[in-house]
Design goal:
Blueprint lengths: L8 H10 L9 H6 L9 H12 L16 H21 L11 H11 L5 H7 L3 H15 L4 H4 L7 H14 L9 H11 L15 H15 L4 H13 L2 H13 L4 H32 L2 H34 L8 H8 L2
Length: 344
C-alpha cells in the first residue's frame, strides 16, 4: 500500500518522515495533534491514527519496518489516541457493570436501544449502483483486513473465551481455505463492481467518519487494558450482522449483482447467526465470569463500552452516507478518486 495523501499539518509531516529512514519526529507534532475540535471528524487526526496503526498491520510500500516501534511514532500515536479515546468516552459514557450472567442480555439491550439510521434498509431498497459502490469503498478499509483487529485479543485470553474467539476468527479466515476468507470474498465483490481490489487502495477517498470506525478497533485491540472493549465491539459486530447483510445482498441483487458479487453478504447471513450466540455467551459472558473479583466490574463495563462505541460510530457513519446521498452528493471525500478506481 502506498502512503496516502496528507489531510493536515500532522499527516503531512508524518508522511514525509515515513518516506525516510527511521528518525526522531519533530516534537511539535505531539502538540499539533492535540489541537481543538471534534476528534471523531478531524481528518488530520484520524488519518494520523490510521497511519500509525497500519505500521502494526501490513505497513506501507517503501516505509522502513523500523518505524513500527520507533519511540517518537509511539509518542505521537499516544497523543492522538488520548484525544480519540476522550472523545469516545464523551460520546458513550462508561456503562454500569452487570453480573456476568447478564452480559448477553445487556448487549442485546444496547442493540435494541440503538436508534441509529438504518443504512441497510436504504441500500436494500433505494440505493443506486453508484451509491452501492461508494458503500463498498467505505467498507473496504475494514473488510480487506477483516477480523485482524479483533485477533489481537487471542493471546490475551485463556480457556473458554479464547476458544470462542478462535472459533469465530477461524470462520472469518475461511477455516484454512484462502478462497473462503471473508476478506477474499469481499475482494470478489469489489471486483464484480469494477473497483480496485488492492489493500488500502481507497484510503484517500474515505472521510474521517469512516476512518474512526476502523481506528476504534485498533485502539481497543492493541491495548491490553481495553481487552473487554474489543470483545464487546466484536460481539456487536456479530449480533447485528445477519439481517443487515441479508439486506445488502438483496440490494446488490436488485441492482443486478450476480452470485459471486453477493457471496460475501450471503456468507455473513449464515455464519454470523451462529457467531452471535458464541460472541454473547461463550466469549463476552465467559470472559466477564473469568475475571478476578477486583477487575470484574471494570472489564464488564468495558465490554459494554466497546459494544456501545461500535453502535455509536456505526450510526455516525450511516448518518453521513444517508445525509450526503439525500443531498444528492457523494459520501466520499472526492468522487474523482472512486471514478479513477472504476476506470470510468
Amino acid at each position: 500500500m502506498q502512503l496516502p495523501q496528507p489531510r493536515g499539518p500532522v499527516t503531512a509531516a508524518l508522511r514525509q518522515a515515513l518516506a525516510d529512514a527511521p528518525h526522531k519526529l519533530p516534537e511539535q507534532l505531539v502538540a499539533m495533534v492535540c489541537a481543538t475540535g471534534d476528534p471523531l471528524v478531524d481528518e488530520d487526526l484520524q488519518l494520523t491514527l490510521h497511519l500509525c496503526y497500519e505500521l502494526h498491520y501490513r505497513g506501507f510500500e517503501d516505509v522502513d519496518a523500523g518505524w513500527e516501534w520507533h519511540p517518537s511514532v509511539l509518542a505521537l500515536r499516544q497523543a492522538a489516541e488520548s484525544r480519540f479515546e476522550a472523545a469516545l468516552r464523551r460520546l458513550v459514557p462508561l456503562p454500569a457493570a452487570v453480573p456476568p450472567a447478564q452480559v448477553p442480555r445487556a448487549l442485546t439491550a444496547l442493540i435494541d436501544a440503538d436508534d441509529g439510521p438504518e443504512l441497510s434498509r436504504y441500500v436494500a431498497g433505494r440505493a443506486t449502483i453508484e451509491q452501492f459502490r461508494e458503500f463498498v469503498t467505505h467498507r473496504s478499509i475494514y473488510h480487506l483486513r477483516e477480523a485482524d483487529p479483533h485477533t489481537w485479543a487471542i493471546p490475551r485470553l485463556a480457556g473458554r473465551p479464547k476458544a470462542a474467539l478462535v472459533e469465530i476468527q477461524a470462520d472469518e479466515y475461511g477455516g484454512g481455505r484462502a478462497e473462503r476468507m471473508h476478506a477474499e470474498l469481499f475482494r470478489t465483490t469489489m471486483r464484480e463492481l469494477g473497483l480496485d481490489t488492492a489493500y488500502g487502495a481507497h484510503l484517500d477517498a474515505v472521510p474521517a467518519v469512516t476512518l474512526a470506525t476502523n481506528n476504534v478497533m485498533s485502539l481497543f485491540g492493541l491495548h491490553r487494558r481495553l481487552l473487554g472493549a474489543i470483545l464487546g465491539h466484536l460481539a456487536v459486530f456479530e449480533m447485528t450482522s445477519s439481517l443487515p447483510n441479508r439486506r445488502y445482498g438483496n440490494g446488490l441483487r436488485r441492482l443486478g449483482g450476480n452470485p459471486d458479487a453477493t457471496r460475501f453478504y450471503d456468507e455473513h447471513v449464515e455464519a454470523d447467526a451462529v457467531h452471535e450466540q458464541i460472541a454473547a455467551h461463550d466469549l463476552c459472558g465467559a470472559f466477564c465470569a473469568d475475571q478476578p473479583p477486583r477487575r470484574r466490574a471494570e472489564q464488564t463495563s468495558l465490554v459494554l463500552f466497546g459494544a456501545a462505541c461500535a453502535l455509536a460510530l456505526d450510526g455516525r457513519f450511516a448518518g453521513h452516507l444517508l445525509q450526503r446521498w439525500a443531498d444528492g452528493a457523494s459520501s466520499l471525500r472526492d468522487q474523482r478518486l472512486l471514478v479513477g478506481a472504476l476506470g470510468a
